[in-house]
Amino acid sequence: MDKTAARRLSTLFLVLGLLSLADLASAQDYVSGHGALEVWDAEGRAGVPLWVRIWLTILQSTFISGLVFVRRNVEARWAVGGFFGVFASAVLSQTLTDIVPLSGFIALLHVLFWSPALYVLLSRRPFLKGRSIYAAWSALMTFVILFSFVFDIPYTLVYFDHLLGLDLLT
């Protein structure tokens, strides 16, 4: 692992640790669901509307299908890496800290890990470089991240508002 990757990983664990200290409440203090301050667990996922389940299937399929393109395309590496980064961070936060898996926390992970992919996709614009399966995938991937951020950014703000005890957004 190079120094930059080690530094990023250390920063991630520091942020997770600080969030863990800030959120000392237990999961019993929250209800399961998909709202920013609800626990994103099996019960919460089971209770989402049909359109959200369909959206989650499209989202996961788009990220995972990026595996086909990672060998030759940097945008796909950033997207797939961000997808697995969210998963690994969520698992590690549950294993190593007391962070309650609120939907707002998961949204924060999305914003942290998917923003680099979105930046690369928008700055390099592979979806405008001819007609190909990769161009179509990169257009869909860009849309998936942007649409997700419509929900993830407000959820992240509500989550931080809650952690800081401001209660301006709840």
Q: What this model shows, in words?
A:
The structure is a single chain. Helix 3 (50-65) packs across helix 6 (133-163), helix 4 (74-96) runs antiparallel to helix 5 and helix 5 runs antiparallel to helix 6 (133-163). The protein has helices at residues 3-22, 42-46, 50-65, 74-96, 103-124, 133-163. It is globular, with a radius of gyration of 17 Å. The chain has 6 helices and no strands. It is an all-alpha fold.
For the record, give the distance between the C-alpha atoms at the N and C termini, rounded to a whole number: 41 Å
Strand content: under 5%
The amount of helix comes to 55-70%
SSE string, helices as H and strands as E: HHHHHH
Q: Which sheet architecture does the biggest sheet show?
A: none
Q: Give a count of the beta strands, DSSP E runs of length 2 or more.
A: 0
Q: Overall 3D geometry?
A: globular
Rg for CA atoms:
17 Å
Number of helices: 6
Overall pLDDT: 88
Secondary-structure class: mainly alpha
Q: How would you concisely characterize the structure shown here?
A:
69% of the residues lie in helices and 0% in strands. It has 170 residues and is mainly alpha-helical.
Question: Features of this protein?
Answer:
170 residues; mainly alpha; 69% helix; globular
